[in-house]
Amino acid sequence: MDEQEFVRTVAERTGLSRQEAGDLTRATLETLAHRLSPGEARDLIIELPEGLAEAVRRGTTDRIERFGHRDSVRRVAERTMLKEEEADRGVRTVLAVLREAISEKEFNDLLSQLGSDFSQAIESAG
Q1: What is the pLDDT of residues 13-72, one digit of tens each?
Q2: What does the alpha-carbon distance between residue 45 and residue 50 come to, in Å, rounded to a whole number?
Q3: 115 conformational bin, left if phi > 0, alpha if psi -120 to 50, beta if neither
Q4: C-alpha to C-alpha distance for 99 and 10, rounded to whole angstroms
């Protein structure tokens, strides 16, 4: 899945414009990268198209942050100027599209680092 298709899918599923969906997607990936080990971030970057991989690179740090799904939604809302409800739906949607865009192994590795509340969030996204 290339970057345009990824963003178009997020836009269709959230009802946001393509610009908003692109901003949301990049903000979500950058935020989630704060939760990942450098090795896991590298593995994810390999499977993403360049524009989305760059968002993960920007968010990658040497120190893994610990925060849950709710805090990630708040951070994404602040970055995108979306309402928290829109950001929540958006983060869930980005995770769901990510599950379709990368290998099952990589997605499972990603979820293992994100934690159970992210797994629950994606299940509710469908």
Answers
A1: 999 999 999 999 999 999 999 999 999 999 999 999 999 999 999 999 888 999 999 999
A2: 8
A3: left
A4: 12
Closest CA to 110 of 88, 26, 78, 118: 118
**CA–CA separation, 77 and 1 (whole Å):** 25
What's the predicted TM-score (pTM) here? 0.93
Q: CA angle, corner 98, sides to 41 and 45, nearest 5?
A: 25
The Cα–Cα gap between 35 and 126 comes to: 23
- Other beta carbons less than 10 A from residue 108's beta carbon: 11
Q: Which amino acid is at 48?
A: L
Structure-token match 């393509």, residue found: 18
